[in-house]
Recover the amino acids of this structure.
C-alpha cells in the first residue's frame, strides 16, 4: 500500500491540525482542513497559519491539486480561498454540504443570493468516490454523525477522519449540532475501524487529555479499536449513544461556531458586502 508523506500544521487557538499530503513519487499534494486566523473580538482575519502552509509548499516545490475539507467546521474558519489564490488546486467537500447549507442558510437568513447546492466547491464527494494526488489514489468514506456532510479521506495507508475520532484517550466527536446524530456517528466510526489495523489516522483536533502533556495528531486503527475511551471494541451502539447524548448535554458551544459556519458553508468565502461595502457576520440571538 502506498504511503503518502504527511506534514502537519497546528493552530493552538482552535486546537486544529491542518495537513499537506504529498505523493512520494511526484510533487503533487493536497491540503486538508486549513485555518484562517480570526480575532473574534476585533472582527479581524489574519493569514499567518495559511502562510505557513504556502511557505512550506513553495519551499518544497510542490503542486497543489486539491484543497479538501473533511466537513463544515464549527471551530475555525477555512483558508481555502486564500490558499487557492496563492497555490491553485480544486476545492472539495462532502456532497451533503447541501443539507448543512439549507439548515444554516435559514438560520442566518442568508437570502436567495446564497446558493444551497454546494456550487461554491469544485467537487462534491459521495461515498466511494475516488480522486488522484499525483500517483496516489484517494477514496472517500461518508462518515456523518458529527455533521451530515462529514467525510473520511483514505489516501494510501493514511485516513483523515476530521472530527469523527479524537486520540484514544480523548474519545469521539460531539453530535449535538443541527443534523448530528450519535447513532449515525457510531455506525460511521465502525466504517473507519474496519480499515486495516495499521492504517494511520490523522485527526483534525486534539484537546489533550488531562494526563497527557503534548498535543498529538496521529494514531492508528488498531490503537483506536483497543483503547478509544468512548468506542473501543466491546462498546455497544446503545452504550455509545447513551454516553454521547449525556456528554453532549454538558458541553458549551464552540467559541467560533457562529462566524465559522457562516464562512465555511460558503467554502471559506465571507458573506457578500452590504450596501455600504462592508462585510458583516451575524449573531442570531436566542437561535441555538
Amino acid at each position: 500500500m502506498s504511503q503518502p508523506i504527511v506534514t502537519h500544521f497546528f493552530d493552538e487557538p482552535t486546537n486544529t491540525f491542518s495537513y499537506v499530503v504529498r505523493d512520494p513519487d511526484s510533487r503533487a499534494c493536497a491540503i486538508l482542513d486549513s485555518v484562517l486566523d480570526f480575532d473574534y473580538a476585533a472582527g479581524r482575519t489574519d493569514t499567518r497559519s495559511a502562510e505557513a502552509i504556502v511557505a512550506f509548499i513553495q519551499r518544497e516545490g510542490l503542486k497543489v491539486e486539491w484543497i479538501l475539507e473533511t466537513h463544515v467546521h464549527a471551530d475555525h474558519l477555512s483558508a481555502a480561498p486564500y490558499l487557492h489564490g496563492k497555490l491553485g488546486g480544486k476545492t472539495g467537500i462532502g456532497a451533503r454540504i447541501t443539507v448543512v447549507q439549507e439548515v444554516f442558510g435559514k438560520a442566518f437568513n442568508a437570502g436567495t443570493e446564497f446558493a444551497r447546492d454546494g456550487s461554491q466547491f469544485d467537487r462534491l464527494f459521495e461515498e466511494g468516490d475516488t480522486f488522484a494526488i499525483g500517483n496516489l489514489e484517494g477514496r472517500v468514506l461518508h462518515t456523518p454523525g458529527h455533521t451530515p456532510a462529514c467525510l473520511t479521506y483514505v489516501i494510501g495507508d493514511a485516513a483523515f477522519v476530521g472530527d469523527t475520532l479524537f486520540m484514544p484517550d480523548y474519545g469521539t466527536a460531539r453530535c449535538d449540532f443541527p443534523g448530528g446524530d450519535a447513532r449515525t456517528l457510531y455506525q460511521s466510526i465502525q466504517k473507519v475501524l474496519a480499515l486495516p489495523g495499521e492504517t494511520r489516522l490523522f485527526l483534525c483536533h486534539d484537546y489533550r487529555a488531562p494526563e497527557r502533556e503534548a498535543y498529538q495528531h496521529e494514531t492508528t486503527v488498531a490503537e483506536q479499536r483497543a483503547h478509544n475511551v468512548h468506542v473501543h471494541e466491546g462498546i455497544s451502539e446503545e452504550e455509545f449513544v447513551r454516553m454521547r447524548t449525556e456528554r453532549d448535554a454538558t458541553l458549551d458551544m464552540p467559541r467560533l461556531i457562529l462566524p465559522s459556519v457562516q464562512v465555511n458553508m460558503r467554502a471559506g468565502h465571507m458573506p457578500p458586502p452590504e450596501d455600504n461595502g462592508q462585510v458583516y457576520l451575524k449573531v442570531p440571538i436566542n437561535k441555538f
